[in-house]
Amino acid sequence: MATNSMNLEDVPSESLMSELLRRMKCAYKPDKRLILIGPPGSGKGTQSPIIKDEYCLCHLATGDMLRAAVAAKTPLGIKAKEAMDKGELVSDDLVVGIIDEAMKKPSCKKGFILDGFPRTVGQAQKLDDMLEKQGVKIDKVLDFAIDDAVLEERITGRWIHPASGRTYHTKFAPPKVPGLDDVTGEPLVQRKDDTAAVLKSRLDAFHKQTQPVIDYYSEKGIVAKLHAEKPQKEVTDEVKKVLS
Ligand code: AP5
């Protein structure tokens, strides 16, 4: 208790006030449980922070969690690395475990955005079981529909600020100074799997294993199809329309 109040005393007043205002605004937002599904580079990770802020949800991206585990060389990361480097999916059991754990975080109280999960029908069924136990269900699945031909340019031009997860694109969302993060000035990096060759395997996995997940949720009548090839702002407007 003493430690907590000490920590709060060290937090700048502006940060405390803005967090308080955020929580007051969030109290009036409806709960939402969303899945974002689409091929690599379709814009799931770009739209997620916008939806997260608008609806006070937590953003759970299995790809980000797995990359953190690989970087930290945890047992999970060691098991996942080989499949990720090749652009293949890691096993259902590994990702289901991390999602089950992550959904219990206090920041997921008003709901969540699942970005990149579920990616197989098996994962979708396990997710349904988990949610049923909590007495809740998925409200909407946003299908980032896009032609494969557009994706190579998006993937090979992507640059990331690893510490914050901020994403840039050399053509579509360039940083103010090439190669440097706008906020910290730190160097940007490219993901190891963001090459034209690995993209082929990732797209193959998407069409064979993940496309059936869209059919699975279509049968439940909760899929909203987006025009993910449109410019970023227009996709955001579509998302907001679907969720309002
Ligand atoms: P993951 O990290 O989930 O990668 P992915 O699904 O391939 O998705 P991306 O992050 O590449 O694409 P995105 O749609 O988020 O695109 P973004 O918004 O950044 O998974 C990586 C690996 O982890 C997998 O291959 C697998 O091995 C493993 N894995 C993860 N989850 C798993 C699971 N559930 N089961 C098993 N294995 C799993 O946009 C891309 C670029 O385009 C950016 O530069 C952006 O600025 C730009 N951009 C975005 N929107 C637009 C727009 N509208 N117009 C122009 N440019 C745009």
TrEMBL record:
It comes from the Eukaryota. InterPro entries: Adenyl_kin_sub, Adenylat/UMP-CMP_kin, Adenylat_kinase_CS, Adenylate_kinase_lid-dom, P-loop_NTPase. It is an enzyme of class 2 (transferase). Keywords: Kinase, Nucleotide-binding, Transferase. Residues 158-193 form the Adenylate kinase active site lid domain. The keyword Transferase applies. It holds the Pfam family ADK. Its EC number is 2.7.4.3. One of its GO terms (cellular component) is cytoplasm. CDD domains: ADK (cd01428). Gene3D superfamilies: P-loop containing nucleotide triphosphate hydrolases (3.40.50.300). One of its GO terms (molecular function) is ATP binding. It catalyses: AMP + ATP = 2 ADP. The keyword Mitochondrion does not apply. Coiled coil: none annotated. Monomer. Belongs to the adenylate kinase family. PANTHER family: NUCLEOTIDE KINASE. Catalyzes the reversible transfer of the terminal phosphate group between ATP and AMP. Plays an important role in cellular energy homeostasis and in adenine nucleotide metabolism. This is adenylate kinase. The lineage of its organism: Eukaryota, Viridiplantae, Streptophyta, Embryophyta, Tracheophyta.
